[in-house]
Each structure stands twice: as structure tokens, then as C-alpha cells.
Amino acid sequence: MATVPPLVGRHFIGGHWLGPAGAQFESRNPAQLDEVLGVFPQASAREANEAVAAARSAYPSWRRTSRIHRAELFDNLAQLIKRETENLARLMAQECGKVLTECRAEVIEGLHMIQYVFGTGRMPCGEIVASEIAEKDASVRRKPWGVVAVITPWNFPFAVPLWMLCPSLLEGNTVVFKPSEDTPLIGQRLIELFLEAGFPGGVVNLVHGEAEAGEALVRNPDVNVVLFTGSYEVGHRIQQLSAEHYDRIVACEMGSKSAVIVCEDARLDLAVTSALISAFKTSGQRCVSASRILVHDRLVEAFVQKYLDGAKRLRIGSPLDAGNFTGPVIHRAAVEKVLRYNQLAREEGAEVLLDGSPLTSGEHARGCYLAPFIYRVEHRPGVRCIREEVFGPHVAIIPFRDNEHAIQIYNDTPYGLSMAVITESYRTMRLFREECEYGMGYVNLPCIGAEVHLPFGGVKKSGNGHPSAAGLIETVTHKTAWTVNHGTEVKMAQGLTTQLEA
Ligand code: UN1
After folding, report:
1. Which end of the chain is more exposed for a tag (fewer CB within 10 A), N or C?
2. 456 inside domain
3. What pLDDT band is residue 502 in, cutting at 50, 70 and 90?
4. Beta-carbon neighbour count of residue 260 at 10 Å?
5. Which of 96, 166, 263, 287 is catalytic?
6. Cα 135 from Cα 438, distance rounded (Å)
7. How many structural domains compose the chain?
8. Domain residues for 434?
9. Which band of pLDDT confidence, cut at 50, 70 and 90, is reported for residue 2?
10. Residue 326 banded pLDDT, cuts 50, 70, 90
């Protein structure tokens, strides 16, 4: 049973918290499904459009404030996040089921994004370039696009919104934020902190809800930019709807089938640790989680033994117990999906090495707990379980003959987000760096754990290559060319004459 009454969720539009009205939905603790953490209003298209209108009307005055003033609000926000780190981590652990250690790391990752943006406030935000004409001064300046819709997933309910909100707001855009329907509580808490930090109402707006609210935001012609992280299906729908809008910018970070590649010369313990963390941190529910471990033929037997030993020892349990390696998956539907893929792997000829069934007794009885599912399978074209995203503790070990074979296997999915190569050879490392399709590459590391000052994003079905985190400045601004003549007569580039008459 819940120890505190469920929170009453509210939209925040144009500087006002709206009272509960209309359809509602619950946020439940995935470790204890009978615990309702909050009840939230389900935004209809009307509320989503009101939020866009509020963001639009707040835009001119926000754009006209000093960039440094905007940046300093992020310094205020950073202090609040430091004050609230532990509370935020606990709230996140309860709402999305990630273990406390991961939730703390996520709060810190969000803090880093805030600090990064604060730091860039006083950095140059344009470029001076030369002109062919000595009297002309030319510069490149960035302008905000206007209103940004931020639509984010449950698995990083704090850091990913901050990746998107911080650069958008610093650059002078206003925002409408729709957190995942699975983590509305942490989303609302984040907006409360923005307000406490001094961000004006209307500049930051919050709507709770599901597809109807998200779709209304994307259909609204007054939204200039849509920033999205989530599934390929939803991202693709956003891209299609956005094609109707002539200057709409869409940055999508979607699914993945990330991999760890264990080469013939790999250090075995390093490979095993990297592959365990890549596959099972966050119960395999990071967009960058590895669901494929490619292992050189000569190492497979030794690798499998150590990998299984390690996987069997992983402690799975309450997110609030900091000693646990991982917690539950997000909800029953996620359990069902993972089990369907486990079954598919069997049907597609997998040799099951560790059978990941639901954990249903003792402390696991009330939650969505799954044990790791590990199988060995040969690569063949068209095998779905090694091509499609599962998003859970489901991992294939796929043997390969040589590096060229590994590259062929690695690239044989529609996705391209993250990969790690485990090798001692700089030639091998370089070969994978050049030939694999990915957005984030790691050597002798897991394929998760990106830092905010690096670009984050993928290729193919993983997204359109727009980076999240620090690189988002490119997406939330457009560049302008500004050219001034300091002479007293008109002189043109490219030798164009200015003679008006023959
Ligand atoms: C995600 O999985 O959606 O690179 C984001 C990482 C984290 C972010 C993951 N910094 O694992």
C-alpha cells in the first residue's frame, strides 16, 4: 500500500497550475504495482494547443532577455538540483524502477547538462567571417526557432528532458514539455524546480498525457521544433506528421540494436564486465543497451562461461536497495513484450543459455521483475530476434569468424546507435570505427554511459543523426548570415558589377 497519498498531477500552462479535469491516468511503482504514486490529467488536444499558445505568447519577451540572464537561471537550477539530488533519485527509483545508484547517476547527468548550458551562456554564440570586400563585415549569428515541443521517454525521465529543455531555453526558445505517461511525477517535479529557479511562466509549459496530447503538439503549426526520444514507431509518426509543416525541425532519437564486439585479442574479464553492464544495467531498457554480444569464435566458450557466471550473480530487486544491480522492467506490457521475444528467439533456433523468466515470488511478487535471458545464435540474414529492438534483459551471443564477418553482422540491423569494441589492437579498433554504422562508439568500455558534452544520437532507424545533449544547439537555433558595408559605395562579391547604366 502507498505510504503517502498519491500526488494530484496538474498541467502547467501559461504560468498556471491547472486543476484536475477530464480523463485521468495513474503513475504506478513498477516494483510494487499496487502502489499508485500519482493521478494525472490526460491532456486532450485542447490543452496541448493551449500550452503551445502560451509558449508562443511568452516567446518574444523571452527571446529579448539577455542570453546571460537566461544562462544564470540555469545556475539557480543547478543549486536546486544539488539540494534535491537524493529526493529526486528516490522519486525516480519509485516511479521508473531503476535502482538508486542509477537514479543518482541520472540526476548528476541532468545536473551536468544544466552546468554545461550555464557555462556556455558567456561563450561566443556566433562567428566572424571574412568577406571578399574589405569594407564588408560578415558574421554568422544564431537565432532561436520559437516554440519547441519536448516529448521524452520514461527510462531517462530527468536527464533526457534536461538535454532538450536546457539548450532550447538558453537559446531563447520557449517550450512545451510532455513527459512520458509512465513517469509524469518526476516530469512535474522537474518543472516545479524550473519555476523555483526563476524561469517565467509561459516560457516552460507542462502537459501530461499520451498519444492524443503528443499528436496535437506535433500537428500544431505553431510548434517550430519537435525533440523526441522514444520508440521508432512514435518517432516515425512524428516525422510523417511534421512533413506537413514547411520549416519544422524534428530531431528524433529512436530505437536501437546496440552491440558489444569481443575481438580475438580481447581481455576476457574486461569484455565480460563491459557486456554485462551494456546488456543488463537498467534491465536492458536504455536506448543504448546491448542486446547483441558478438564474440570471436576462438573466445566463445570461455566468454560464455564467464558471462553466465556473472549474469547469474546479478542482484535483481527493489530499486530502493542500493545494493541491487537492477530493478524491475517498467510495466506488465514490457514483461509481455520481452517474453514474446524470448519465445521468438527459441523459434528462430536459439540455444538458450539462461532462461529469463518472470521473477514472481518473495520480494518480487508485486512487481515487474524479469531474470536475464541469454542465448547463443548463429547469424543468418532475416533472424528477427537479432535485428529488432527488445528493450529488456534479452541478449544474444553471436559468434563471428573474423573482423569483416563481425562488421557484417553488426551492420545487419535497421538500427545504428551505439557499439563497443573490445580489442587491444589499434588497427582493429580503427577498422570498426570506420566500417560500423553508429552514433556513439566505445573501445574497451560498455556501449552505455555517454557524457552530456558529447553528441548523442544515431543513424538509420535510430534517428536522423541529430544529436541530443550538448549538440542540440544546432537543432534549436538557425544560423543567420549578417553582412554590413562600412564603405560609402556599394561593392559586390564575385566581381558583380554595380554599374546601373550602360
Ligand atoms: C537512453 O538510453 O535513452 O549513454 C539515454 C547512456 C546515458 C543516456 C542513455 N548517458 O547510457
Report:
1. C
2. no
3. confident
4. 30
5. 287
6. 45
7. 2
8. 258-443
9. very low
10. very high
